[in-house]
DNA sequence: AAATATGATTGACTTTTTCAATCATATGGG
DNA sequence: CCCATATGATTGAAAAAGTCAATCATATTT
């Protein structure tokens, strides 16, 4: 990030602060919810990925690990549907997590085609650490919102995301 | 039918209804704002891209076109910063729009390295049509929220996106 | 039992992202 | 004014992510 002469003018010291970009903040595009959503997630997942890097994880693999640790015994198909990913991407993600000993593919007695993704003990430990990092990252990304605003945001997003 | 689990579905409420996926809605991950943001934007931009396809545009090119039409005379560097894209991606985007006669690269008298992206008359017409489509797409994606809720969402997102 | 559908997997292919290098032009310091 | 350094646009390469079709094993339907 460049550090222009006099950074930090207002409290809004996130990215793009202090340059001449405020001009574009007033455009119609900058007010579109879809645009803001895309930008928020870009900033958020960027930061989360950076911080998760120390665990050699990304938001994607963290999501899979999190669901594996959820107690809901998700199958790969369910992971694909829930995460809006192609089944082949789930294969790759699970391969990596399995290779590092974080999860296992368990047979589903009720459908032998299906593989349930379960965490190992090491996987649970990894998840605990990742969870803490994600919490920090999220906290930084949402720094401008108080708890109640975060609750409101969560609820609104939930209604358009599900 | 290309999109797996993305748009499509019935125009009404909850997609992914009726399968066994509700189970995962209760997980911690499903309550994380960052996860919901990612999912909302995935659904939203998926739908918008589908609908913009008839104009041979995507959300990306629409964004560039929109900023070009904003009256703010953005340079490519500013587009890159504002859209969080690599400068080389802007080159490609502008190339396409320029090739189809929607925008031009104007010299900036104050900095001859810089190129200001300006719309042509045809570009403005294209933008008008795209804007209408984006409005429809957005309206569908936000169907679960009333006007006031949309305002609230917009404001909350703006605060974390800028 | 046969036909059909589904979950996981592989491989090919396209698109998107990310980086390093280059050229032209600006800018700041002697 | 000249030099060193920084920046905007561009290209090209490489990595990552997303899309698709085909296959195998197992379920389900008829």
From TrEMBL, chains A, B:
InterPro entries: HTH_MarR-typ (IPR000835), MarR/SlyA-like (IPR039422), WH-like_DNA-bd_sf (IPR036388), WH_DNA-bd_sf (IPR036390). SUPFAM superfamilies: Winged helix' DNA-binding domain. Residues 26-162 form the HTH marR-type domain. Residues 1-17 have a biased composition (Low complexity). Gene3D superfamilies: Winged helix-like DNA-binding domain superfamily/Winged helix DNA-binding domain. It comes from the Bacteria. Residues 1-20 are annotated as: Disordered. This is MarR family transcriptional regulator. It comes from Arthrobacter sulfonylureivorans. The lineage of its organism: Bacteria, Bacillati, Actinomycetota, Actinomycetes, Micrococcales.
